[in-house]
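Dear Dr. H.,

I hope your travels went smoothly. While you were away I took the liberty of generating a structure for the chain from your last submission, since the lab meeting agenda had it listed for discussion. I wanted you to have the full record in hand beforehand rather than looking at slides cold. The sequence, exactly as received, is reproduced here:
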Amino acid sequence: MGTIEKLKLPDDIKKLDYQQAEILAAETREIIIGTVSKNGGHLAPSLGVVELTISLLRNFTPLYDRIVWDVGHQSYAYKILTDRKDRFHTLRTFKGISGFIKPSESSFDAFGVGHTSTSISAGLGMTVADSILGRDRKVVAVIGDGAMTAGMAFEALNNLGHLDKRMIVVLNDNEMSISSNVGAFSHYLSNLMTGKMYTRFRKDVQSLLEKRPLGPRLLKIAKKMEEGIVGLFTPGILFEELGLRYIGPVNGHKVADLDKAFQNAMLQDGPVIIHVSTKKGQGYGHAEKDPSRFHGVSSFDVSTGCSSKLGSAESYTDVFGKVLAEMGVKNKEIAAISAAMKDGTGLCEFEQKCPDRFFDVGIAEQHAVTFAAGLAISGIRPYVAIYSTFFQRAFDQIIHDVAVQNLPVVFCVDRGGLVGADGPTHHGVFDISYFRMIPNISIMLPKDSYELETMLKMTMALKGPSAVRYARGEAHHYPELPVSSVEYGRPEVIEAEGEIAIVSVGHIFEESYKLWKNLKEEYGQVSLINLRFLRPLDQEYLCGVIGSKKLVVTVEEGSVKGGAGEEVQSVLMDGGSRARVVRFGIPDIFIEHGSVKELRQICGLTAEQMFEKVKSVYGGL
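The corresponding predicted structure, in token form, is as follows:
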């Protein structure tokens, strides 16, 4: 029986000596690697914070104190070491535990998170609430160095320094290189300047000087001298200027060092930032060597580190990346922008071939969009590749900085639709609705790889903004269907006969196509229309094809509220059609995590489910 099996978690972690804590860290990593190798997930980030998690649970009481994780994919060890060890094997599976922090899943989870850079804001809100309500809880926000590239994190730090509340921010730095000599001295100096004796001495000197005639002036000089020493040997002067006491850098893989840092932090009267240096993928050689590849993974072989999926098919993201790189080589006015997701959005090839026109702006979607607007107004054609769910963070900039000025920025909306195991914070189900409400933006919805390539090339000729939406996963091909040219704003009519018409929106065509075949077997003739465009949309042409039908069925993997189905229905109403309309899409709820197949079942979006509903409705007409 291992150490972890003997413990009453998380309480017994406080009782361990440092050798036992090391053994616990190794066993926790073994559980993480074993589960993620089967289920997929965020491996390297979670492996990097195991000792940090152990130290947090040694120094705080998570059911009372608040530990606020940023992003959440650093939280696997936290889940194991609080109350989910026995359920961890269900990670990211349907009805299993989430890959992110989720308060509805556990009382140990202080604040729900799937996106990034929110922990300091949320933690400060909790700290202020405790102050108002008279609670004496400790609040710790754990934020990664990548998340610090987002403006929201600095807005929160600025506010925290201004309010001067007692709160601890842990900056998990898994990228910054600090030389051993400077780092060692900095660690010693940080311990010295935040330790019990120095803290008491500092308070006594401040109290004494404040009572003297020249006290305030001498206090100011002393503070400048202290800042000079800190700034010379540590990277913490920025945080000190914002009003936070700086501790670090601290070795994030030594529990003893982390314990000392937390104990020193709790001696301070105001906000503290602890700079923790960790290594992504710690404890698993393959992830240590290639942390980017093991950031988020599908199932893999633990011994080799190789993916378990053999000969995976080309994805929509692969198609996008290849086509845009080809376009970039041919046209020097094309630029590509990523918000810290160049691998995930397929922009590595573009970066290799056009390095001077590739820009990774960090986790800063708002800046990415307005930066693109600046490029566009100056003669460059920017392609902004961001996951659908993260585009939501730049909604204001899309409207005010791009659409109002009608600038030719191309929004490449990756992960449109259900994304599977990452769950409700990552499903791309609102993009059609929010892009649809903004004037001037062309909205393109390719059903397959051919249409994605064609539409990307089409954007070069547009004078205003455009959004091209495509899914995660395999790019579809339909070799049995004739390839028709893509006409800007006009739907593709695959068949126009019969009293029932199916209007399919984007990649969900794979289910619509099955539905069409099933209905043809049942009723003979059935119309099938691939919408292709939501704006512009040739309404007269569409009405001419489907306006006289008895039943029109719209199918989209996006929210039914404000979605493409509503647009088709309004077109029919405006055209005087009496057709009954049935809209299939994502219902007005947040969809949990699971496989795409399982989640489509929840939403009633499988061909079989839609077939039964259509039969029922058509039979009653």
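Two observations you may find useful: Confidence is low (pLDDT under 50) at residues 176-190. The first strand starts at residue 66 and ends at 69.

With kind regards,
E. W.
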